[in-house]
Design brief:
alpha+beta, 5 helices, binds biotin
Length: 247
């Protein structure tokens, strides 16, 4: 069921309310306290973009399989953009990029059971749809409108995404994990291309992405060895002006 609000603090916080059941989608025209990754805020002008969260029953997954859910959501977004002729890539872990620009951010909240299984997840998604002017402080934003020169019906985009997500979640349910990971790999941003990364203390280093482990670690090849990196251990630095992306 779709639940529409003109304004909410944050759809992902709203999605935690037990009155919403798995499958429910909470959509806001505007968020007053939108949340992004790594403690960032997510702001969006009213009525221009898609701001929503999907409640997902993740109880069929073990906690160490939670990256699969993130992968399914990211792939559903890539599938959606393909329907509009846009060639999207997944910037590890869960940004969606067109070229070197971010078009969508994803934030996932999970609740876990005491037995180590997943219970319920909320996938919060912000798709830049019709926004054409962005805060210059954002390093690399884009939108569907900027990429194509067209305006989009946000309701239709949401409907198409919902179908794509259902298909990807069906794959997850049926245990097609290898196929999902193969698809995820084929859409990784800058796979096999030397890129710059930053450590939390700001130290920069160059490495090449060789893949992503099924548990979500980024496999980086620094020329000497291929090592797994966790989300909090490393961040991408966007090429060109080497300005660090907001991630
Ligand atoms: C990111 O930092 O890239 C993740 C952004 C996620 C934004 C979406 S908008 C809908 C949902 N509600 C929120 O407060 N955040 C997510």
């Amino acid at each position: 069921m779709f639940h529409y609000f003109d304004e909410l603090a944050s759809t992902i916080d709203e999605a935690r309310d037990p009155r919403y059941a798995p499958g429910d989608v909470i959509v806001a025209g505007h968020q007053t306290a939108g949340r992004g990754q790594r403690g960032h805020t997510w702001s969006s002008p009213p009525g221009e973009n898609l701001l929503f969260s999907v409640v997902i029953d993740s109880s069929f997954l073990r906690a160490d399989q939670q990256f699969m859910l993130l992968g399914a959501v990211a792939l559903a977004l890539v599938d959606t953009f393909a329907l509009y002729g846009m060639d999207a890539r997944i910037k590890w872990t869960n940004d969606i990029y067109i070229g070197d620009r971010k078009i969508t951010g994803v934030l996932i909240d999970h609740s876990l059971c005491s037995d180590g299984r997943m219970s319920r997840s909320g996938a919060g998604i912000g798709i830049n749809v019709n926004q054409r002017l962005f805060d210059p402080a954002l390093p690399n934003p884009t939108s569907m409108a900027l990429e194509t020169g067209m305006e989009f019906d946000r309701h239709e985009v949401l409907g198409r995404f919902h179908k794509c997500l259902t298909a990807r979640l069906d794959m997850l349910h049926s245990g097609a994990h290898e196929e999902l990971m193969r698809d995820y790999h084929s859409r990784i941003y800058r796979l096999g291309v030397a890129s710059r990364f930053a450590l939390p203390d700001g130290t920069l280093f160059e490495a090449t992405i060789r893949g992503v482990a099924p548990t979500g670690e980024l496999m980086l090849d620094d020329g000497a060895e291929v090592k797994p990196w966790l989300f909090r251990e490393v961040s991408f630095v966007i090429d060109g002006n080497f300005k660090q992306a907001i991630i």
